[in-house]
Amino acid sequence: MSWLICVWHCRGELVIGERRGGGSSGRLYRGQYLSQDIAIKIIELNVKNESGTLRSIPAVELLQMFKQEVSIMRLVRHKNLVQLIGACSCWPKLCIVTELMAGGR
Predict the structure, then answer these.
(1) What is the pLDDT along the chain (105 residues), one digit of tens a residue?
(2) Per the domain annotation, does 18 fall within a domain?
(3) Record's Pfam families (predicted)?
(4) Domain that residue 84 falls in
(5) What is the value of pTM for the model shown?
(6) Residue 12, domain member (yes or no)
(7) What's the CA gap between 82 and 102, in Å, rounded?
């Protein structure tokens, strides 16, 4: 697994496609990495909730959540879970790249 997604994106190996959703800490996109369909979670400091209100998450808290999620995903392997492909930890640009769930649209 590589931690150089920022570099992958610059070299054109990582293609960020259409937005698929969002949550409390970022947005989810469909994309491709080396011709493989993937999911890209881009983590943001300032996120609009469903009502359009801007919600700011403290940077320290956001970075801790990011590190915890990546650490867990690195260790967990199961046929029913998407696998971690990599992560970008080039602050303030944080993202997590995983396999795209089967049937994920």
Answers:
(1) 344 455 555 566 788 889 998 876 788 999 988 888 999 998 877 666 666 666 667 778 888 888 999 999 999 989 888 999 988 877 767 889 999 986 755
(2) yes
(3) PK_Tyr_Ser-Thr
(4) 5-99
(5) 0.77
(6) yes
(7) 9
- Stated length of the chain: 105
Per-position DSSP letters for 40-90, written without gaps between them: EEEE-SEEE-TTS-EEEPPHHHHHHHHHHHHHHHHH---TTSPPEEEEEEE
Which position has the token pair 């649209």? 105
Q: Tokens 């046929």 — which residue? A: 79
Q: How many CA atoms lie less than 13 Å away from 58 in the CB half-sphere?
A: 3
Question: In angstroms, rounded to a whole number, what is the distance separating the alpha carbons of residues 105 and 75?
Answer: 26
Residue 56: inside a domain:
yes
Q: How many domains does the chain have?
A: 1
